[in-house]
Amino acid sequence: MRNKISAYLSDISRIHHRAAFTDVKHHTNPKTTLFAKLVRKRSSCRKFSDAPVFDEEISQIIEVARLAPSAKNLQPVHVWVVRSPEAMEKLKTATTSLYGAPVVFMVGCKSEEAWVRECDGKNGAETDAAIVGTHILLQAKALKLGSVWVGSFDPAKIKEAFPETAGWEITALFPVGHPAKDATPSPMHDKRKSAEEFSSEL
After folding, report:
1. Domain limits of the chain?
2. Which site among 11, 116, 131, 164 is 20 to 30 Å from 190 CA-CA?
3. What residues contact 67, with CB distance under 8 A and at least 6 apart?
4. 178 vs 47: CA distance, rounded Å
5. Are 47 and 182 in contact (CB under 8 A)?
């Protein structure tokens, strides 16, 4: 009898909470944002199909990269879209890590245009470029495209192949495209430090 009464009261309590919307956060779980879901789903793609990336998709990626924050909003970053067959062949002389992508976003920065920390002279150009690169990766995923951050390239060969980059330090390449059907994340992708090991409260 006591168990029946407890169950009855529990049911009433649940009805009351729903009527008052006090349990909304339990059911909607606001801590799991769309952004957090996007970040969890994103992984590096190292095998692309030959499906094209459309102009509108490239424009959306460029726009999100353009809106990336930079120190003092100095924006010491430039992005080149490498897309034509001729340009892709040139880029292949500087790296073997394009993985068959139909388009590559090449990110460069200028240290002389960036914010410099006064106390030690730390230059923020590469940090600003890294933020732009992160935006490229995440927007590509939002468009259901694959992407990968490539740091393995010969900067001198890029300078030689693309005179347009003179005066810029190329910081990273971002091959982007539709993942091949048999593309899989790296076995290392899910190996993350625990929250306790990764962060500390002071």
Report:
1. 2-31, 41-177
2. 131
3. 135
4. 9
5. yes
Answer yes or no: are the C-beta atoms of 183 and 46 closer than 8 Å.
yes
User: Measured between alpha carbons, how far is 115 from 121 in angstroms, rounded to an integer?
Assistant: 9
List, in sequence order, every residue forming a beta bridge with 48; answer none if it has no partner: 179
State the Rg of the chain over Cα: 23
Q: How many Cα atoms occupy the beta-carbon half-sphere of 120 within 13 Å?
A: 2
Please report the pLDDT score of residue 21 as a whole number. 42
Nearest CA to 88 out of 137, 161, 166 is that of: 161
For 106, the 3-state DSSP assignment is: strand
Calculate mean pLDDT across residues 104-133: 98
Residue with tokens 């982007």: 176
Rounded distance between C-alpha atoms, residue 143 and residue 122, angstroms? 35
Q: E strands within the chain? A: 77-82, 103-109, 146-147, 169-177
Contact 116, 152 (CB under 8 A): no
Residue found by looking up tokens 């996007």 in the block: 38
Write the CB contacts of 134 (distance below 8 Å, at least 6 apart in sequence).
Answer: 68
In which element (H, E) is residue 94 found? none
pLDDT digits (tens, 9 = 90+) for 44-83: 999 999 999 999 999 999 999 999 999 999 999 999 999 9
Q: Which of 66, 71, 90 shows the shortest CA–CA distance to 164? A: 90
Report how far residue 11's alpha carbon sits from residue 5's, in angstroms, rounded to the nearest whole number: 10
